Automatic annotation (TrEMBL):
Superkingdom: Bacteria
One Pfam family hit: MoaF
InterPro entries: Calycin, MoaF_C, MoaF_N
Domain MoaF C-terminal: 141-249
Domain Molybdenum cofactor biosynthesis protein F N-terminal: 8-108
Record-given protein name: Molybdenum cofactor biosynthesis F family protein
């Protein structure tokens, strides 16, 4: 018997409306530039930015699609590509043009049949480097740095959420202000450290088909991200989001008793 969601559980589009109010503005800083990213798994991705479009090419094919670019830290860009020919996919690429480090997060809406017992929207992570110079700084990698942190995220006057980072695999959320007030859950999560004070936090929900990718800049206490999932009408929706971050508390664990 299929598990039923709690009464009055909101659909993706119901909670996402207005959640981009506090998002950082778009930038045209990459317009007119070309970059090639070599990923650790062998993928090579060419990017040619022109206004609100990007022409991309890799071994799977090529295309020209809509792109949004946000400068989330100095020389660091949150690049979101929505593929017209692949509506079930969206790719977020974090590019640091100074260190030449990159991280791709590909979100994919899958069928219910192939995801029994798993979140329906999956994610693939690919660290890489931007060609054309020597990469410097730390290599983006999975991290346990956020474990034990409890923080509040204000996306708009009508969207305030509390996150508690439970382990390297899961986090808990609850809505403090908004249409989901009183609702919360524990979902699968993956966190990458990109540089000092900079993290890419992602989560994949069980109760509704949605996954999210966020860049945290703790120097500015800002979060910039997106959601990809299926809305209440059954359509694919890719929504922007952004928040002010406030750290609320940190839990410290005894040696040998830390979460997985």
């Amino acid at each position: 018997m299929a598990q039923q969601n709690p009464k009055d559980w909101k659909t993706y589009d119901q909670f996402a409306y207005g959640i981009d109010t506090n998002r950082l503005p778009l930038t045209e800083a990459l317009a007119g530039t070309k970059h090639t990213v070599h990923f650790d798994d062998g993928r090579e991705l060419a990017l040619d930015f022109t206004g609100d479009k990007v022409t991309w090419a890799d071994a799977s094919g090529s295309g020209t699609d809509s792109v949004e670019v946000v400068e989330v830290a100095p020389d660091t860009y949150f690049v979101e590509i929505a593929f017209a020919g692949k509506p079930l996919e969206a790719e977020t690429i974090i590019l640091n043009l100074a260190s030449r480090r990159a991280l791709s997060i590909l979100s994919i809406v899958r069928s219910k049949e192939e995801t029994v017992g798993e979140p329906q929207v999956g994610q693939i992570f690919r660290p890489g480097v931007i060609a054309g110079g020597e990469a410097s700084g730390m290599v983006p990698e999975e991290t346990r740095d956020l474990i034990g942190l409890r923080a509040h995220f204000t996306y708009s006057p009508n969207h305030v959420y509390e996150h508690t980072y439970l382990s390297s695999k899961r986090y808990a959320w609850q809505c403090l202000v908004g249409v989901q007030r009183g609702h919360g859950d524990v979902d699968l999560a993956t966190t990458y450290k990109f540089a000092e004070g900079q993290y890419i936090f992602t989560f994949r929900e069980f109760k509704i088909p949605v996954a999210s990718t966020f860049f945290y800049n703790f120097a500015d206490m800002r979060s910039t991200g997106k959601f990809l999932g299926i809305n209440g009408d059954g359509a694919i929706q890719n929504s922007n989001a952004g928040a002010f971050i406030r750290k609320a508390s940190v839990t410290f664990y005894q040696p040998g008793e830390a979460p997985v």
